[in-house]
Amino acid sequence: MIDYKYQVGGSLTVNAPSYVRRQADYLLYEALKQGEFCYILNSRQMGKSSLLASTKHRLEQEGFKCSTIDMSIIGTSHITPLQWYKSVVGDLWLGFNLLNKINLKSWWREQEDISLLERLRWFIEELLQLHFPDKRLFIFVDEIDSILSLNFSVDDFFALIRFCYNQRAINPEYQRITFAIFGVATPLDLIQDKRRTPFNIGKSIEIQGFKLQETIPLTKGLQGKVVNPKLILKEILVWTGGQPFLTQKLCQIVANEKCKDKDKLLINNSQLFIASLVRSHIINNWEFQDEPEHLRTISSRLLENEQTAGRLLGFYQQILMGEDVTIYDIREKNELILSGLVITSQGKIKIKNKIYQTIFNLDWVATKLENLRPYSQNIKKWLASNQQDKSQLLKGITLKEAVAWSENKKLSNIDYHFLANSQQLDKQEIEINLNAEKIELEKAQFTLTAAREANRILNQARKAAKLNAVLHFSKPCIVSFAIGITSFIILLRFIGLLQGMEWNMYDSFLQQRPQAGIDSRVVVITIDEPDLQKIGQYPIPDNILVKALNKLKTYQPKVIGLDLYRDLPVEPGYQELVEFFKATPNLIGIDKVVGTKVAPPRVLAQLSQVGFSDQVLDGDGKVRRALLTVRSPYSPAGILRRTLAQLDTLYETLRERGLATLWVRQFATDGNRQDCDCLTAARSPKNQLRQSLGLQLALQYLKTVGITPYPHPQNRHYIQLGKALIIPLQPFDGGYVWADTGGYQILLSYHGTEQNFQSFSITDLLQERIPKEKIQNRVVLIGATAESINDLFQTPYNNRLFGSSKQMAGVFIHANITSQILTAALQGRGMLQTWSEIWESLWILLWSGIGTLIAWRLKSPKQLMFVVTSTGLGLIVFSYLAFLQGWWIPIIPSLLGLILAPIILPMFATKQLEKIQLQQTLKLLLAVAKEQPAAGKIAIEYFKQAEGKENQQLIDKILQQDD
Question: Pick from 386, 431, 440, 473: which is nearest to 853 by CA?
């Protein structure tokens, strides 16, 4: 065990203890013995050379003759074809141990009159016929990708290998020679001349990563250094995906780490331990830690060819985003696979392992693409706008320069899509300018035609008016219409008709938000129905509660929140519970200060270790807000203070009237002097400021890391807490209308449901079945989740369209509040923000204006419906993305403005168009009347009698003006 070493880079020796036999070992060995020509072509550092050495050793042990040609040793720089072919023959001469049988220098000189390829073929035939007439020969060609860097073609070399394969049907001697080719290439690379027959012989041996059952030899190097080598190796494979180089390297890191700190692994979780080592030794600053070089090789492979780098990065970016990528160019697909980053599995391309996915992530791809593209900033902003921001598309000279740069380059589909959209927009703008000139010309022609048609009778005038009437809305008119729609929607919102729908949209966004995972900082100890059955009663007796709290205290949590009302003793054990409260400064109890009040434990109240448990319910009974603080006017001190003030007033009144008596004075002063003295602290003009349980727990936790709240210098109502700026909720924030925002309220951005928090039952706590590391240095809440206790609330996760779903226990709502505050303070995210009323009104005006503009521009109902629907979906998507970034933007009023404008504007336009047609018809008839007075007057009278009363009045008005 002392001599055991892992091989990180390079080829393993045949007797290396860390050599892992894979399926490829058996497939290659059996195929070669059966006479198959084989090629093993894969990415770098996959163990190809080690496989070659192992297979060669096995065949030699069985008496076969083997030789190796290492193309990388022959060289690629400043080498001539003569030197190259002579080196190949020399490798065979040395490999088959012919030093004493052939004078290579003389033999080569004797063959000067024939071609280089013929010399190699003759040498192979001499091997078969003269030197090894009864032996099977195996020639291993390694590092075949080195030929790609030669400045001359060696297609003839591979044609010779194919010749040896084809000769088997003619010359049985060739059945005794077999070739095996290794390298980072594809069969298409071996013969590059497209006019020649491709290298299509032999059998491909696929070499895959290590499987768990194959890696038993690797566990030997971990024995005595880790508790469970198999489990550790399993976690290593989770990160490496079985990639040989990374697996050997990570095993070596684990072995070295354990030699330094053996006890550390005995207590740590293996999964977390391996993850920590991977990040510290491989991922973090990977460019500097990549020794021997591996990750930089992959990066260089992707980026070395400027002509194809952009397209390869584009394909890889799509794979990272989880898209199904279809690569039609087989060379591009092979190049991406040969880089080592991806593999094919079940016909799909996926990333090879977790380490690659973490290092070569979307940010890395974006950075590299930015370095490649001259238009990187434009395409980045265009993609960020969901391909909607046309202002980022290229135009004019910039577009021409970008197209010129893209020539002879293979770019990603996104690049081609961006350039195509730019070209299309540029073309459209040119066409719009041409069409505008054409329209102006047509209008002039139409005016001339209408003037000539003025000599027609009434029916012709009607048809001309109906055909030619055009409604033109001026910009001020369009703006006024949009403002009117906006005012109507704001009125609907102001009276509360849209509040329920905005709440439902808020709930939908919260439900569709990506799962946040488990918050490791907050742990919940639950008291459910099975716990109550075991305990036998509720409330839980004080002796059982203090026993659970004592066990919890041994786990060393940072702060404990007791979400149980303990205003009265529950014997036995009350005195023990009191003593525990006194000895535990990091425990916070609860009381209820709003509505029906419940007092806190007396000793915790004296120690100021109490937070209220009240929740704010919206009109539909759901909890969407968190009440952080409230000023309580209901304390006993406050009640007694007001009573004493009333007695003082009564005494002064009686004294002035001469009715005061000694006993009244005594009652009002001396008799209550002791109570008055004890209320000195309570005589503040302000009421007592109370904090919620969730806020208390978060502040206690943050205090341990040096974070305390303080008023924001620009607004004393805003609170700065670490990285978070806490802003109180106002009555009209978000989707609320006339909301009761008493106290200090914020929008509750739920971390998640019960599944998003680590929870254990109180039975687990009493029986010590909870791992210490799950609670140590955490915020721990203890609360009831049993339905019989009825401490349950409706939350946005309840979907009423399909019946009532499971309600959330109050203790998990407190956990969500604590989690939100911690996330905001420590990470600068988690708080939901809203716009001011002015910005929300402008936002609604914007979408009403967009709806008005769409209705103004589009006349086809189908087009109108399609564009409005698409735009509405875009609005919802934008609002959802904004919600993910912590903004609650009004959606329902904006959608309503977008939808109402295309409905109302056409109705208004139709009515206006009818009036325009009437006026134009009358104008045409008046024109006729000037040329033909009798016919013109009769046509005007018929026209007037056919219209309604309102239009008749309008006609009379026009005629009066004309007179």
Answer: 473
